[in-house]
């Protein structure tokens, strides 16, 4: 059936489709066998939903396949473009990225409940596209929402598994010049093998006439699994985020150092990939001291956090919940912690006396790596 949309068959039972991308996507053909769906999107007939992507990619028709399930209470649609659905000639015109692009993709993910209204739309309703880049001997895939009506378009990826060298990014930084990455300012961490932590690209798309401008790129380079206290505290990741404005014109750049401090469980020493706590952290590049803060309440208790740090029991009950945790850590020339100051906020029923119950308390501790006992 030409000019078919999902709303044609499903909107009567799922009113939220009236506000869904599924009501905008027009298929020139489609088939549904069981839950297996296949169809071809008509880019022109889909109007604003695909106009910008069509101009960016040069596609006039996009074959999709995937699954559709309908149990009369929930409609779940999961579709993706088939291999080779997009050519590379048009999209290779993206400044700087073009020669590195190896594939383009598009996906649809919608979950609509029969109880969802047309005003609010489906609980899940995503129309995304992706670009795969050849980078440092690996492939990274940047993804974002399908752009509509031109304007700013962001595609990005977060990853911790790709080894990278600074020269692997020359295609993005060639006009910036030397010094865009502060390799000589990382002190005890300068020799650590680097990985790509993340990459985010902002493009500005104009429609009439169509043009692509490279607005900015943010590059996160760093490392994972750097032990400050072996088996206990790890920087994972620690990243230098470099933001370059107008990288294909007259570029300027800024950078920031940020990451996560992982506190391993005393039951899983060294397992920083599955920590008890992950704290937002920053680093002072003058003395490489680390400051980390946890603001959100966690399910672990204060006793558990202190056991993880090797502090041991301080006589609190096992039902006292950690609410805030602040750490200031000093680091030596080898990149190891020499000591830390700990500020713990807690809540719960601290029945210190028979006639007094304390609901909140703050604990301050200091620790030195030379074996001195913590001071409280």
SSE blueprint:
Elements: H1 6-10, E1 27-33, E2 36-42, H2 48-57, E3 61-70, E4 74-81, E5 101-113, E6 124-135, E7 138-145, E8 151-163, H3 170-173, E9 195-207, E10 210-223, E11 226-229, E12 233-245, E13 252-263, E14 277-283, E15 290-294, H4 302-308, E16 321-331, E17 337-353, E18 356-368
Antiparallel strand pairs: 1-2, 2-3, 3-4, 4-5, 5-6, 6-7, 8-9, 9-10, 10-12, 11-12, 12-13, 13-14, 14-15, 15-16, 16-17, 17-18
What does this protein look like?
This protein is mainly β. The chain is built from 4 helices and 18 strands. The strands form 2 sheets. Strands 8, 9, 10, 11, 12, 13, 14, 15, 16, 17 and 18 form an 11-stranded antiparallel sheet that branches. A 7-stranded antiparallel sheet has the order 1-2-3-4-5-6-7, with no helix packed on it. The radius of gyration is 26 Å and the shape is flat.
- Taken in chain order, the helices and strands follow as HEEHEEEEEEHEEEEEEEHEEE
Structural class: mainly beta
Number of strands: 18
- State the major sheet: 11 strands, antiparallel
Round the Cα radius of gyration to an integer and report it. Answer: 26 Å
Which geometry do the CA atoms define?
A: flat
Count of alpha and pi helical runs: 4
Q: Work out the strand percent.
A: over 45%
Helix content: under 10%
The averaged pLDDT comes out at 85
Kindly, what is the distance between the CA atoms of the first and last residues, rounded to a whole number of angstroms? 74 Å
- The unreliable regions are 349-363, 371-376
């Amino acid at each position: 059936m030409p000019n078919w949309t999902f709303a044609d068959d499903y909107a009567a039972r799922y009113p939220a489709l009236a506000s869904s991308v599924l009501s905008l996507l027009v298929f020139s053909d489609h088939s549904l066998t069981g839950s297996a769906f296949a169809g071809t999107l008509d880019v022109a007939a889909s109007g604003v939903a695909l106009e910008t992507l069509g101009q960016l990619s040069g596609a006039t028709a996009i074959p999709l396949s995937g699954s559709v399930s309908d149990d009369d209470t929930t409609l779940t649609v999961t579709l993706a473009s088939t291999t080779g659905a997009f050519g590379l000639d048009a999209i290779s015109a993206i400044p700087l990225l073009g020669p590195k692009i190896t594939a383009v993709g598009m996906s649809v993910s919608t979950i609509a409940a029969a109880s969802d209204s047309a005003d609010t739309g489906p609980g899940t309703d995503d129309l995304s596209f992706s670009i795969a880049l050849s980078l440092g001997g690996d492939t990274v895939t940047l993804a974002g929402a399908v752009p509509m009506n031109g304007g700013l378009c962001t595609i990005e990826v977060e990853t911790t598994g790709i080894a990278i060298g600074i020269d692997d990014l020359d295609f993005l930084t060639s006009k910036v010049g030397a010094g865009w990455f502060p390799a000589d300012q990382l002190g005890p961490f300068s020799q650590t093998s680097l990985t790509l932590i993340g990459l985010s690209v902002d493009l500005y798309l104009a429609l009439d006439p169509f043009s692509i401008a490279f607005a900015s790129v943010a590059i996160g380079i760093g490392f994972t699994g750097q032990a400050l206290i072996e088996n206990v505290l790890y920087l994972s990741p620690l990243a230098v985020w470099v933001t370059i404005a107008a990288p294909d014109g007259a570029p300027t750049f800024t950078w920031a150092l940020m990451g996560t401090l992982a506190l391993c469980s005393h039951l899983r020493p060294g397992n920083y990939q599955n920590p008890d706590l992950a704290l937002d952290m920053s680093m002072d590049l003058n003395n490489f001291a680390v400051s980390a803060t946890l603001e959100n309440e966690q399910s672990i208790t204060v006793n558990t956090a202190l056991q993880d740090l090797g502090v041991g029991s301080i006589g609190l009950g096992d039902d006292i919940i950690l609410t805030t945790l602040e750490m200031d850590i000093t680091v030596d020339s080898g990149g190891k912690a020499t000591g830390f100051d700990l500020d713990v906020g807690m809540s719960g029923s601290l029945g210190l006396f028979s006639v007094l119950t304390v609901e909140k308390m703050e604990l301050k501790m200091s620790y030195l790596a030379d074996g001195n006992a913590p001071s409280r």
